[in-house]
Amino acid sequence: MSSVRVACCQISPDVERPDRSAELARDAIRAAIAEGAQIVVLPELANSGYVLRSVQEARAAGASEDGELLAGWASEAARGDALVIGGFCELTPDGTLFNSAALVDGTGVLAVYRKLHLWGEEPRWFAAGSHPAPVVKTRHRGDRTRSLLRPRVPGADARARTGGRRADRRAHQLAARARPAGRPPGRALARRHDRLLEQGVRRRL
Fold first, then answer.
1. Phi and psi dihedrals of 82, rounded to 5?
2. Rounded to 10 degrees, what is the CA torsion of 107, 114, 195, 30?
3. pLDDT in tens, 63-103
4. How far is CA 42 from each of CA 56, 160, 185, 189, rounded to the nearest angstrom?
5. Which positions ≥6 away from 112 have C-beta within 8 Å?
6. How is domain 6-141 classified at the architecture level of CATH?
7. Predicted TM-score of the model (pTM)
8. What is the pLDDT of residues 100-141, one digit of tens each?
9. Which residues 6+ apart lie within 8 Å of 87 measured at CB?
């Protein structure tokens, strides 16, 4: 089986500057493809960042499935016949916000998944999706079909059912101590909040 080069890009999106966040994502995709990446992975909520203060803030940063944000990803993907998988704050025509992930290639958007299982403060900003992650056949897997929006981890589903919720609750309890109630998160507190949530995810898996 031939190898596939995957690039996981870390960027620092700014909810107050969605145009700048889009530019950062495109720059990251372009650089990764220039280095030979065939699959480029962007963070969750790459156009807004994860720490939000209001629905209005999320709405201002929101992007549509057929808008300029994902079209820009597709344009960069076409440079190297690559795939881009990235999270984005999706704003639908009816005004609903979703925490979504898109699979894009040089031809455009192949699939969009709207996060089903919201946790922490996410329900304050986003509606839950109503469909499971799509399964998408790509050239990088030949005749084998896999979902690039939901990697399979052996036993992860069973562990999530038995212990995942406890880990989630514990992570958010710890995060709450790091961020006093009613106060918008500062940068340092937001980073600690994210680290604690990540620890909870690692315990779950």
1. -105, 170
2. 10
3. 999 999 999 999 999 999 899 999 999 999 999 999 999 99
4. 24, 24, 23, 23
5. 65, 90, 100, 101, 102, 103
6. 4-Layer Sandwich (3.60)
7. 0.70
8. 999 999 999 999 999 999 999 999 999 999 999 998 888 775
9. 42, 43, 44, 45, 46, 99, 100, 101, 102
